[in-house]
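Justification of resources, computational component.

The compute hours requested in this renewal are based largely on the per-chain cost of generating structure records like the one below. Each record pairs the submitted sequence with a full structure-token output. That output is archived, and it is also reused by downstream analysis tasks.
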Amino acid sequence: MAIEHDFFGLLESGPDGSIFWSENIELGDQAVTVDLTAPDQDDVSQAALDVAASMISSLEAIDRTARNAMVSELDDRTSEVIEYILQQQEALGDELTDLLVDVSGDVQVDVIRSLQLMSMTILADEHGGSDPFAVLEYALDPDSTDDVLLVNLDSEGEVQSVTSAD
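The structure output for this chain reads:
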């Protein structure tokens, strides 16, 4: 079986009924891996694929929304964003400034600005549900895949939560 969509083309299901689509999308001067997945193609609607295509097409705006959500968590000293920044400061020490793309004097904001969007995973079967529809993965150092922040979005593109990968 397969699903056809204007943006994704022909999405063929595997022997277990799952679907998977992957592409590298350019965002500024970096490539972002975008994956669309669902364990059962019968749980994927055309509306879900339309929303997914729209999110991919507006990746820059989605990225901005995610970063703004991270900045809004800086007031909460127990947030995972603060914990991530403190962890990076401790692990990298003086080398942290080498990874910052802009040094404004506010290290926390500078770290958020300097995070690289590594990937976006769209869980197409979660359209309209309470679980995340899309997960954005950010890292300060792209070679350090364990130290990442995850931004969970609903199918409306609203941020549900920001978590670390721990």
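Residues 2-164 form one domain. The chain has one domain: 2-164.
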